[in-house]
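ok trying this again, last paste got cut off
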Amino acid sequence: MFTPNCYEPHLPHSPARPPGFLRRPTMAQKPKVDPHVGRLGYLQALVTEFQETESQDAKEQVLANLANFAYDPSNYQYLRQLQVLDLFLDSLSEENETLVEFAIGGLCNLCSDRANKEHILQTGGVPLIINCLSSPNEETVLSAVTTIMYLSSPGSGSHPELTAMPVVQCMLRFSLSANARLRNLAQIFLEDFCSPGQLAEARSWRAHSALGIPLPRTEAPQQP
């Protein structure tokens, strides 16, 4: 299983975005629908634009809009019909951190719904989401932790990878973060989704290994 290289994300040096550009999917910024094409037609146009454009800026804006639509349960049927969940999952592998941020934000908005949750679990989305725990982008990590919590909720069936030891160790590290939002989410995960035995084992592993030491994503450990 993939082992997340967990460290506390930092945002101060994130690249600036143009005025009005969506920082993160929110209800207040939900895009307007052209009444002449209807909700499904508008979403289809967004998906088509994302697939056809070569502009990274356009892809970012389109994905942000799709993530905003994912906030509204009345859109879930359309988003499933247009395979937007798969589009979000595919975008998690992009090198563009902004695309990853909006993709995991969209999945976070969608996965409280049972049908959407099952689709993510059955199509191999869990490793891609766990991978987001290693992102240097604060919003990406927060959305990834929240998404893992939704996917781990009762009724999701048996998916032990969601609470595998590397994930629990990662959450333990986040629970000590200076970032209150990240710390609180991680503490909730540990309390609600991990057994006392898992926590004890994770703490033991952390005490006897270097897994908790943050390493730059682009650098390999030096050989002795």
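PB: full thing came through this time. Residues 10-30, 210-224 have pLDDT under 50 and may be disordered.
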